[in-house]
Amino acid sequence: MNNQLYGNLIFELSKTGRKGYSLPKNPYRHTTDEIPASLRREQEAQLPECDELTVVRHYTNLSHNNFGVNDGFYPLGSCTMKYNPVINEEIAALKSFTGLHPLQPVETCQQALWLYHSLQELLSELTGLSEFTLNPCAGAHGELTGLMVIRAYHQSRGDHQRTKVIIPDSAHGTNPASAAVCGLEIVEVKSKSNGQVDIEDLQRLIEQEGPSIAAMMMTNPNTLGIFEHAIPEITKMVHEAGALMYYDGANLNPMLGACRPGDMGFDVMHINLHKTFSTPHGGGGPGSGPVGVRKGLEPFLPTPRVIKTDNGFEVNTGDDGQSLGSIGSFFGNFTVMVKAYVYILSLGREQMKMVGPLATLNANYIKESLKDVYELPIEGLCKHEFVFDGLKDKSTGVTTMDVAKRLLDYGYHAPTIYFPLLFHESLMIEPTENESKETLDGFIAVMRKIAEEAKTDPEMVKSAPHTTPTYKQMLNDNN
Ligand SMILES: *Cc1c(COP(=O)(O)O)cnc(C)c1O
Q1: How far is the CA of 435 from the centre of ligand 1 (A)?
Q2: What's the rounded Cα separation, in Å, for the pair 290 and 207?
Q3: Distance 414 CA to ligand 1 centre (A)
């Protein structure tokens, strides 16, 4: 790793006039002549000029500094960095899927439409909501789509004054962002010290804002990994005020096999297929955020819709007046759906029931094994994830940031830090259901070791990472 390519920017490796190719001059064409002078650059673009081998080595070296689920334990809370089985990739890469074109005649892609429709039905069964659209391309995109459905529903009833959304202060940042993009106003409801929504504060908001509330957005278990026990009461209050309940199902792990948002009274939800149903994510890769609705809201779902008829599957692209119409290109990210479908089928009905309990067991095992050295602000059972408020011993001056940096030296990805905002030193851990006891024990041992180091050698922890390449370090190495 320690050669002169390492640690430089590709621009710094540039040598004027050096090229990665050599082609004979084309005597027949002068490409720049075809572009009108008014549209051409006045100056050459300042691009790096390198030979091919330099480029290959540069990016290969960079890629070695990457950390993924396949490299090691990745307990990034609220992100569900679960293992993505190889079989998903192999099936999604089949030519019969990758060769499809969204505009080809429906009679030539009935099997793909069958998979698409079957996935919609499976998601309905898993969540208790009656209809799904698979079109949204991310969790936040699903939130926006779901909120647009809710707005369309209110407007169809002439309820135009419903422009506000209640969101708990513990919510994922995309919730208020999506509401704002949808043109809705955010009203924040407080959490109590046990991490659950403060019912009295909610009551007050509903009395104050009642007829202007369009929806309440919730995650359950919430972003603290805590199950909201008052859900029946909350949904009743919100429904009585004429508003709808939105469920953020990005992290559905703890639910699978345990309970269903539809049964809890939610009207609209999204799922992150790229979290709950295992598709690689985190590098900005393709996602999928299907939106499900309860009966009565399906006319508002976006198009195209895949419909089952007596003669096979059809695609409904028409706007019957109530649909939102298109919210993206064509059907969404189809191969992510294939991966989710394979994941669901390979687990099967019985093992699917183990996902929630195992995700919950793993999180509680870590929490209980570390709570004597890390500050646990909310005692009791958690679901798939939980939050520490930094180290228990605050006298060392070692912060959550330092612990996270030191973890990298031990070959672990850091947990989510400084989120949620409810605590100063949040350290949010989500192991997922996939990890073995040995892996969890290894992580626990290292977390305990760092807590010990914080006492014996706080400066060393504060100046971490020591063995993990950082850009600053790479520059120093080169000088
Ligand atoms: C990840 C996540 C989202 C957003 O999903 P994206 O696909 O990143 O847009 C929303 N809510 C929660 C709780 C999440 O964890």
Answers
A1: 22
A2: 33
A3: 18
Judge if the beta carbon of residue 251 lies within 6 A of ligand 1.
yes
Which of 135, 145, 172 should be mutated for ligand 1, with most atoms under 8 A from CB?
A: 172
User: What is the model's pTM?
Assistant: 0.88
Structure tokens at 60: 């290969």
- Confirm or reject: Cβ of 248 under 6 Å from ligand 1: yes
**Residue range 62-89, pLDDT digits in tens:** 888 888 898 999 999 988 899 999 999 9
Question: In whole angstroms, what separates CA 300 from the centre of its chain?
Answer: 25
CB of 305 within 6 A of ligand 1: the answer is: no
Which residues in the chain show pLDDT less than 70?
1-7, 30-33, 284, 319-320, 471-479
Burial class (CB in 10 A: 0-12, 13-18, 19+), 448: middle
Instruction: Report strand pairing: 164-168 vs 213-218.
Output: parallel
The candidate with the shortest Cα–Cα distance to 54, out of 99, 18, 88, is 18
Residue 191 in contact with ligand 1 by CB distance below 6 A: no
Q: Measuring from atom 4 of ligand 1, which residue has the nearest CA?
A: 139
**Long-range contacts of residues 52-60, Cβ cutoff 8 Å, at least 24 apart:** 52/20, 52/21, 54/5, 54/13, 55/10, 55/20, 57/3, 57/5, 58/5, 58/8, 58/10, 58/13
For 190-224, how does the pLDDT look when each residue is reduced to its tens digit (9 = 90+)?
A: 998 888 999 999 999 999 998 999 999 999 888 88
Beta bridge partners of 213: 164
